[in-house]
Amino acid sequence: MGRLLFVCLGNICRSPAADGVARQMVAREGLDWTIDSAGTGAWHAGEPPDPRMIEAAAARGIDLTPLRARQAVTEDFQRFDHIFAMDHRNYEDLAAIRPSGTGADLHLFLETAEVPDPYYGGDQGFEQVLDLIQDRMEIVFQTLKVR
Ligand code: 4NP
Predict the structure, then answer these.
(1) Per-residue pLDDT for the chain (147 aa), expressed as one digit of tens each?
(2) Which residue among 7, 11, 12, 93 is best mutated to probe the pocket of ligand 1, counting the most ligand atoms within 8 A of its Cβ?
(3) Residue 10 Cβ < 6 Å to ligand 1
(4) Known catalytic residue: 123?
(5) Which is catalytic among the residues 14, 23, 36, 136?
(6) Which single residue of 6, 76, 89, 144 could bond 37 by disulfide (Cβ 3.0 to 4.6 Å)?
(7) Rounded to whole angstroms, how far apart are CA atoms 41 and 43?
(8) Nearest protein CA to atom 6 of ligand 1, as residue
(9) CATH entry, 3-145, from 3.40.50.2000, 3.40.50.2300, 3.40.50.410, 3.40.1170.60
């Protein structure tokens, strides 16, 4: 099934970018999938994505302005089929609220690497994050579509 949740720390940089990239691909491929994003932290809850990420995504035809940050919760493991953490800390924080028994599977989005946090860096970091996310998302979609 196609219910995908992308999770980072603040839900204002990396996971909204993944959210927007996935939504663009869902529209492009005409899929009936649910896409959302969340943060393990609540500091930015209710806020739109970082303006630097909004701008970088807009240059790639992706509109992040409707998105609002929220904190990941245990119920997300029932509401989604696949949850993707952007870095190891996000993964561990999600594993700590994961209910026992059934529920979404949990992955490190890049499997063998982390999506670097661009928050305290320059504009180049936002481009790098989008490059990593767009490349990986093609593989994720190919993998899930054949299941
Ligand atoms: P994100 O980036 O996890 O990719 O959304 C961050 C955003 C905010 C903070 C850290 C990372 N912060 O500490 O406020």
Answers:
(1) 699 999 999 999 999 999 999 999 999 999 999 999 999 999 999 999 999 999 999 999 999 999 999 999 999 999 999 999 999 999 999 999 999 988 999 999 999 999 999 999 999 999 999 999 999 999 999 999 987
(2) 12
(3) yes
(4) no
(5) 14
(6) 6
(7) 6
(8) 10
(9) 3.40.50.2300
Determine whether 13 is an active site residue: no
Cβ(8) – ligand 1 distance below 6 Å: yes
CA 118 to ligand 1 center in whole angstroms: 8
Which residue in this structure is represented by tokens 């492009």? 28
Extract the tokens encoding 71. Answer: 């904190």
Query: Tokens at residue 25, please?
Result: 């691909």
The conformation of residue 60, written as its DSSP 8-state character, comes to T
Known catalytic residue at 14: yes
Look at the pTM and tell me if it is higher than 0.85: yes
